[in-house]
Each structure stands twice: as structure tokens, then as C-alpha cells.
Design a protein that fits this description.
Elements: E1 2-7, E2 12-19, E3 23-31, H1 33-37, H2 44-65, E4 75-81, H3 85-102, E5 106-110, H4 111-117, E6 134-139, E7 144-151, E8 154-160, H5 166-176, H6 183-191, H7 215-227, E9 230-231, E10 234-235, H8 242-271, E11 275-279, H9 286-295, E12 301-302, H10 306-309, H11 314-324
Parallel strand pairs: 1-4, 4-5, 6-11, 11-12
Antiparallel strand pairs: 1-2, 2-3, 6-7, 7-8, 9-10
Helix pairs in contact: 2-3, 4-11, 5-6, 5-7, 5-8, 6-8, 8-9
């Protein structure tokens, strides 16, 4: 089964051709990072306009790279939520056009579920070894969710962020330290080579729950930077010395990584999960991977390679394959759901 996947939920225009939910024949991603960097974050209207310019050539490139004919396709899959409304609309309309013109089934895919299915694109299949149930952490720019996956398409939400998502908190922290956008990679670069002892920033454990909170951490970083004469990328006195920026970046990164890892392991222990899946752009963070692997014991952990952690269409096509095994495609009334939840 050859599926064309389309992803336009935020600031990446992506298309991919995937066979049987596993074999990636092409995976094209047109990034808008440089376009939005000048604003210090994503501008939804700008993102939507850029998707309109890029979606047709990106799909054509994906088909060409896969050396696939339109007649060889079995279905078209597209992210229909969550995400930016205007951006989602571009992808859904493109997918409908292709599916209608080629008389192909159409599948709307939850973007968060797509991040989970990135784990099926490399190495062993998690559903076969170790098998369900699996605890899934999806940590991205707009979402930080913990879910128990009991089977294909079956999720039980265990915890979520009560305020800022992990990726959002990285962006805000990078702005405070004057490190630019996107924040996750900028914080990681600044923290590289910082030797112990590290200074500490708060950790919001929210005892008794599997929820997350990063707003207080962000505020603590802001207050510490303000006390030393620098905040929000604007000089309120003299800029922080490079060493202080690096030290604070490392402390912030440690706090986020340790909380994400600890909550994920706690969820696995509580549910008796047979393995752990990580997905989303924040999962590309090296410190988070180190924290989890250092504490996980013998429990299998599936972490996609960095290029499959960020938004891409291969993960959407992979998720759609398992939808196609269980159900018929969606109707032409498939709509965008900007606030779609997992489970």
C-alpha cells in the first residue's frame, strides 16, 4: 500500500510517499524557519501564505523522488489537526484535490498521532516487539502530552501541560537569553560544553499527577536574567556574559529534560507499559534522550532520528496506513480541527 502523506500544520510544508507504513520512498520538507526567525516566532498568516506557495511543488518533488506514478498510489493522507487553522486548510484542500482527481481514499490524521508513528519508520516495529501497551510522550512546540497506546488508534491520555508546552518554553527561554529562534536548537547549542557543577532552576513536579507545567520555570529564568541586567533579547543594562548565557541555558534545558523523562518513566511504571515511544521536535534534544536512557532500565525506548522528530509527512502517511487497515477513508466533508486532542 503506497500512501502520499501531506503535512502543513504549522511552519513546515511536507509531503512523503510511504509504503506499508514502514518504507519511506520520499520525505520532502520545506522549512519556513528563516522566514519566521525575523519575527522571533511563527506568524500564522505568513505561514499560511507560504504553504500556498509551496504545497504543490513539494508534493510534486515527493512523487518524483519516490519515482512513483499517480496510478501507483493507494490513498492520500493529510494532517487535519491540531495546528494553525489557515495552515491546516492548505494541506487538507490539497489532499482533497489529489484524492478527488485520482479517485483515491482520503484519510485525515491527527498530527500528534503522526509523531507517535514516526517510531514505525525505523528499526523494529514497536507493536511487534515489545508490543502494546506503550507509553507515548509527544513533546513539540505546541503540545506536551503523555498517552497510553493500547493498540493501533487506541489512546488514553495520561497527562498534558497545564500551561506552556515544552517547545514553547524553549522558544521563550531562548528569547529571554537573546539566543534567537527556534529556541530548542539554540538552547541546546548554548548549553553544549557546560561543565558541572550546573546551577539549578525550579522543576514543577505537580506531585500526584502526570501533568506538566513549564510556565514557572520560564518565569524563574526571566527573573534571574532581569536581575543580571538582561531579558527578552533587549538590553536593559549590559548583556549577560557568554558564560552566564551558557550556564542558564544548560540549567533550563536540564530542568525541562529531567521533568519530561521522570514523568514518562512514572507513567510507564503506573501503567505496566511494555515500552516507551517519544515523538515531536523537543525529542530531538540530546539532553532529554540522555536523561531517559540513563534511568529507563531494561524497558525498550523508541526515539526517532532527529529528522523524523520534527514535523514531516512520512509520519502522517505511516499513521494513515494503520487507519486504512481498520476503516474506510474519510468523506469529502473532512474538516480541519485546530484543537484536536489525542485519544
Amino acid at each position: 500500500m503506497l500512501i502520499l502523506g501531506i503535512e502543513t500544520s504549522c511552519d513546515e510544508t511536507a509531503a512523503s510517499v510511504v509504503e506499508d507504513g514502514r518504507i519511506v520512498h520520499s520525505n520532502i520538507v520545506a522549512s519556513q524557519v528563516e522566514l519566521h526567525a525575523r519575527y522571533g516566532g511563527i506568524v500564522p498568516e505568513v505561514a499560511s501564505r507560504q504553504h500556498m506557495l509551496q504545497v504543490v511543488p513539494v508534493v510534486e518533488r515527493a512523487m518524483a523522488q519516490a519515482s512513483a506514478s499517480w496510478d501507483a498510489l493507494s490513498a492520500v493522507a493529510v494532517t487535519h489537526g491540531p495546528g494553525l487553522a489557515g495552515a491546516l486548510m492548505v494541506g487538507v484542500n490539497m489532499a482533497k484535490a489529489v484524492a478527488f482527481a485520482r479517485r483515491l481514499p482520503l484519510y485525515g490524521v491527527n498530527h500528534l498521532e503522526g509523531h507517535i508513528y514516526a517510531a514505525w519508520l525505523e528499526g523494529e516495529r514497536p507493536d511487534l516487539s515489545p508490543g502494546f501497551p506503550l507509553v507515548c510522550l509527544v513533546a513539540s512546540g505546541g503540545h506536551t502530552d503523555l498517552a497510553l497506546m493500547d493498540g493501533h488508534g487506541r489512546y488514553r491520555l495520561l497527562g498534558m501541560t497545564r500551561d506552556d508546552a515544552a517547545g514553547e518554553s524553549f522558544d521563550k527561554a531562548a528569547r529571554v537569553l537573546g539566543l534567537g529562534y527556534p529556541g530548542g536548537p539554540a538552547i541546546q547549542r548554548a548549553a553544549e560544553g557546560v561543565s558541572p557543577p550546573r546551577e539549578e532552576l525550579p522543576r514543577a513536579w505537580l506531585r500526584g499527577t502526570l501533568d506538566f507545567s513549564f510556565s514557572g520555570l520560564k518565569t524563574a529564568l526571566l527573573h534571574r536574567a532581569q536581575a543580571e541586567g538582561h531579558a527578552l533579547g533587549l538590553q536593559t543594562g549590559e548583556s549577560l556574559p557568554l558564560g552566564r548565557v551558557q550556564s542558564l541555558a544548560a540549567a533550563f534545558q536540564d530542568s525541562v529534560a529531567e521533568v519530561l523523562a521522570a514523568k514518562t518513566l512514572e507513567a510507564a511504571a503506573q501503567t505496566g507499559a511494555r515500552g516507551i515511544i517519544l515523538g515531536g521536535g523537543v525529542v530531538a534534544n540530546t539532553r532529554l534522550r540522555e536523561c531517559l536512557r540513563a534511568q529507563v532500565g531494561g524497558l525498550p525506548v523508541f526515539i526517532p532520528s532527529p529528522q523524523l522528530c520534527v514535523d514531516n509527512a512520512a509520519m502522517i502517511a505511516a499513521a494513515a496506513y494503520y487507519h486504512a487497515l481498520r476503516r474506510q477513508g474519510d468523506g469529502w466533508d473532512l474538516d480541519i480541527l485546530p484543537s484536536l486532542r489525542l485519544g
